[in-house]
Amino acid sequence: MNKKTTFYLARHGQTEWNVAHRIQGQLDSSLTPEGKIQAALLAEQCRTLNITQILTSPLGRAVQTADICSQELQIKPILVKGFEERHFGEWQGQFTYEVQPLADYDEITSEITDCKPAQGESAKQLLTRFETTLRKELKNASKEVSLIIIHGDILRCFMAQFVPDLIPTPHSSPKENASTGYDYKNAELIALSYDQNTGTFSSL
What we know:
This protein is an alpha/beta fold. It has seven helices and six strands, in the order βααβαβαααβαββ. Helix content is 34%, strand content 15%. The two termini are 20 Å apart. Residues 168-175 have low confidence and may be disordered.
């Protein structure tokens, strides 16, 4: 029996630290006026999508975005532990230019490996945490159409499975150190489905 659950992922609206090029990770900063407009436009996009629940990372910038969407959609957001952004350890709070010269900067920010900042989380650990939580939420609410507010590095890692160069063919394996090479925009909406029978995701 074909049993697929439709859901939508979106990054939070623009924040003060996004503008300042400062690494947030699991620290936080408020939405900018532009970020609030982006969240309102995201809500408007969702108006015709039959959204029945809003799930959000518990970090403030995601909650702010979800709250703006909830006003338009008249759905109270649910905070989900496990949807938090990647923990960037000692890099959190630093400006991008301060860590860019480090030898492992490109691997940590553009690849999906075990490499991580000191006291932080690797891309592989982030992906495992997020996918485990996402599958649990979608399984428990298989008939819901969910808007899920999350973060940029989660999207980079999770959406890599849909990037053609990173998808294994019958005669090859995915490139372990291939760059995901895409920065997801604030309040960008992505439609996907989850097959409850096979546990696989598809891009719509």
